[in-house]
C-alpha cells in the first residue's frame, strides 16, 4: 500500500484506531509521507512504555494498523532503516486502543517487532517515530 501524497479524503487513514489501516494479507508493505501523520498517541503513563519494553514516549509521527491474527501466528513488523525509513521507529502491539491497557508486544528501540498472537483476534500495531522527521514512513508486515 502506498500513500504518496498523504491521506486526504480517507485515502489511507491510519491516523488513529478508528481509521486503522487493515493489513489484509501477507506480506504487506506500507509507505506513506511522514508529514501526513501526527503524533496521535502519546500515553502519558510511562509505565506503559516500560511494560512494553519501549525506550520511552516517542514524540514522532505514528501510524496505526489493524492486523487480524490467529492464535500462535507469529507476526514480524520491520520499521527500521533496512526497509528505507529515515528515522528510527518503535513498534507496539495492543489488543485495543484503550490507553489504560498495556502493550502485549513491542520492538524495543531496534525497530523490528516479532510477536506471537496469544489468541484469534484483531491486534492494533502502532508504528511510532522516535522523533518528528520528514520523508516517508515505511513498515513491512509478514507472518511465519
CATH-scheme architecture: Sandwich
How large is the share of residues in beta strands?
35-45%
Series of secondary-structure elements, N-terminal to C-terminal: EEEHEEEEEEE
- When the domains are counted, the total is 1
Query: What does the average pLDDT come to?
Result: 75
Largest sheet, strands/sense/barrel: 5 strands, mixed
Number of DSSP E strands: 10
CATH fold field value: Jelly Rolls
Shape: globular
| Strand ordering within the main sheet | 1-3-10-5-8
Helix content: under 10%
Enumerate the spans where pLDDT stays under 50 for 5 or more consecutive residues: 4-11, 43-55
Number of helices: 1
Determine and state the CATH class. Mainly Beta
Query: Please, what is the CATH homologous superfamily?
Result: Mitogen Ypm
Report on the architecture of this protein:
With 144 residues, the chain is mainly beta. Helix content is 4%, strand content 37%. The chain contains one helix and ten strands. The radius of gyration is 14 Å and the shape is globular. Mean pLDDT is 75; it is low at 4-11 and 43-55.
Amino acid at each position: 500500500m502506498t500513500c504518496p501524497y498523504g491521506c486526504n479524503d480517507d485515502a489511507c487513514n491510519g491516523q488513529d484506531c478508528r481509521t486503522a489501516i487493515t493489513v489484509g494479507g501477507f506480506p504487506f508493505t506500507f509507505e506513506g509521507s511522514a508529514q501526513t501523520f501526527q503524533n496521535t498517541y502519546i500515553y502519558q503513563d510511562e509505565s506503559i512504555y516500560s511494560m512494553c519494553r519501549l525506550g520511552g514516549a516517542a514524540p514522532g509521527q505514528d501510524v496505526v494498523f489493524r492486523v487480524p491474527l490467529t492464535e500462535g501466528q507469529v507476526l514480524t513488523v520491520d520499521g527500521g532503516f533496512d526497509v528505507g525509513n529515515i528515522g528510527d521507529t518503535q513498534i507496539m502491539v495492543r489488543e485495543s486502543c484503550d490507553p489504560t491497557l498495556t502493550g502485549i508486544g513491542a520492538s524495543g528501540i531496534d525497530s523490528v517487532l516479532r510477536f506471537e498472537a496469544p489468541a484469534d483476534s484483531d491486534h492494533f500495531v502502532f508504528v511510532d517515530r522516535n522523533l518528528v522527521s520528514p520523508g516517508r514512513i515505511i513498515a513491512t508486515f509478514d507472518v511465519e
